[in-house]
Amino acid sequence: MKLSLNWLKEYLEITGDPNVLAERIARTSVEVEDVTQPGAGMSGVVVAKVLSVVPHPDSDHMVITQVDAGEDEPIQIVTGAPNVAEGQLVILAKHNSRIANGQKIKKGKLRGVASNGMLCALQELGFDEKVSPKDFEDGIWVFNENDDVKPGDDALVALGMDDFIFEMGITPNRADMLSMNGTAWEVGAMLDQNPTLPTVQLVENGSKATSELISATADKQLAPKYKVRMIENVTVQDSPLWLQRKLWNVGMRPINNIVDVTNYALMTFGQPMHAFDYDKLTTKQLGVRLATAGETLVTLDGEKRDLRADQDIVITDGATPIMLAGVMGGQSTEIDATSTTIVLEAANFNPRNIRSSARRHDLHSEASQRFERGIDWNATEEALDFAAQLIAELGNGQVQPGVVVATDTAKANVEVAVTLSRINHVLGLNLNVADITAIFAKLQFPAQVTDETFTVTIPSRRWDISIPADLIEEVARMYGYDNIPATLPVTTATVGKLTYKQQVIRKSRHFLESLGLNQAISYGLTTDEKAQMFTLDAMANITKLDYPMTQERTATRMSLVTGLLDDVAYNVARKQQDVALYEQGRVFYRFGDAVRPTEVEHIAGAITGKFGRDTWQGKAKEVDFYTAKGLVAAYLNQFDFVASISYQASTDFKEMHPGRTAAVLVGEQVVGFVGQVHPAVAKAFKIKATYVFELDLQLLLDLAKNDRGYQPISKFPGMSRDIAILVDENTAYAQIATVIRENGGQHLVDIDLFDVYQGDNVPTGKKSLAFTLTYQDVNKTLVEEEINAAFTNVVTALKEQLTAEIR
């Protein structure tokens, strides 16, 4: 919010450096992000009267003017302004003057005719396009004859550019400072002054009672307060300069005297209101209700809005919506130059509905900002009367007697009690009753003291205060945070360390990077389709966002693989064919009717192209299933699970290649999968053959593990036996290894597969595998008899359990 210092001075006696005041506001109330003076650096800009206008002899769009700038002789100015005319009071930048951005104006010749300055538009003085009045968008600014300016006056002062503007960062809890009245109360407390607030002297001199001309109804849940006044015989015209000056200095564009008054009341009281053209209302019956299915509304910005049933609050003319309540008015009842009878409404709408409507329609207006954060409950009718009287004065109209009240819900005064000891304990101070009483007096908070307990009645303008902690904060602010003594907290020293989960996550990243993978960080949000791909939990539901940022971020992910495939595609599209990535992060599973999903730690990887680099020792090999499986096996071996790790061919993952995918198990528990992405899915992602894995890291953390302990290295020699067997080609290595391990005896320490063969001399449907079995004892040298007995058990088990043929 922008705060005009000159406007604030109408409430309080303020002297001294504006930057000092800004710094005090920042230390006490809200952040002041910037302090600017619009006219700083400009000079020689005055009010001038156009005495004559003649065409330029060598130009079809420029004219030669003689202007009176309060000097002895007229000044000749050549201009291309399309709206310049004799008798106007305009802005003149004289010879050697400076305008916006330090631009210096010098006399010169335009098409051979001398020009001793420049007639200025507001934009040339640094006005933002958003606040410059539309009537002068394409031409110079022209003062009104009632603006109390004369030739030679300082134009920067007349336009309010000598003012200081504070850019305030209003926090949600201090919405009271979104008004001049609220800000005046706050600054007055700092300066120990009682602000002079604007008063309302309403004169009801219209021809008929308002209730005879219009009716209004409202749902108390949607609009706890809804009141209407009417003003007749109004002339719609430009606002006087004093009003326009106030509006553009706080960042609002002047429109006309009716709309400008509603904005002026908004900035004064923090109370949004809206004006309707009475003659454009067909039924003369205003209503406040929720929109119904299929209803639309063209708002003042010309956009057609599809209203959301049971969410958007609308103001209706009979059954027809004419306004998106609390957000923006409708085009059908807009005030224009022909309007003569004004219907003025002021309300207090349900903040939740207003917030929802503003977000959905992307209409974050000044009104919606205030309704969302809250407004003064008791200021609605005062602001309505203030605006009605001012419209009557500026539009030469009459206020109709009476107010039409649709709803007027009362709210009891809020009383909060806090003790002196509690205040001192929290703030670490030693204040007395008189000190606290003085602070509440500065804030204009009525307080009663009983046995050092303060019972404070909270004014309706400070709806952010409701508990003792709020009052303690008020005391701290007014006492001065800088005056509170600094103390160090008393605590015992603790040794910082990572939890087991944090240790595993950190080690996992280091280990996978040591294997040659690079870390990727993908979005947690994706499309509905991608969110459901590669999921490890088929029973989980997708979690959709009500208000997604884009169509590519509509749901939370249920797998890390899709994000990695997007990353692979990004790299491949940029000629990086060899990609090896991993990601550790959370996926989101939603079960049943739960609103919030369950967050589960996962770890995943994706590799494509070649793994490793070509060196003088050999070429890097193309990635295959065994490359990905080897990475998973190496990673899982770091955990030392009690149960054994195994891999089973699986077709349960529809996004994976049905013949090159395995489920990863620890004991009987499926903890993930590894394999090749289905060619159809790879094609959809525009990538080549890619191998991926994903593991439920949270499940890995929870599974039982062996206690790690020291195992001495045997000083006795080991013994080995080689065995070659012929088995069915569909027999998995894991099956064979399990049989050997279970029957190899206590001294079997290693199983090494050194040959796999299919071809000549091997029957069709069979394969030959050769293993080296290593035996060793840490306590003694093994003898042949022990080894032979153990080896015989292995041979027998292979024959019986796998129907293996020993070669």
Automatic annotation (TrEMBL):
Mg(2+) binds at D464, D470, E473, E474. It comes from Periweissella fabalis. Signal peptide: none annotated. It is found in: Cytoplasm. Pfam families: B3_4, B5, FDX-ACB, tRNA_bind, tRNA_synthFbeta. Keywords: Aminoacyl-tRNA synthetase, ATP-binding, Cytoplasm, Ligase, Magnesium, Metal-binding, Nucleotide-binding, Protein biosynthesis, RNA-binding, tRNA-binding. Its EC number is 6.1.1.20. Its main location: cytoplasm. Residues 714-807 form the FDX-ACB domain. Residues 39-156 form the TRNA-binding domain. Its cofactor is Mg(2+). It catalyses: tRNA(Phe) + L-phenylalanine + ATP = L-phenylalanyl-tRNA(Phe) + AMP + diphosphate + H(+). One of its GO terms (biological process) is phenylalanyl-tRNA aminoacylation. Residues 411-486 form the B5 domain. This is Phenylalanine--tRNA ligase beta subunit.
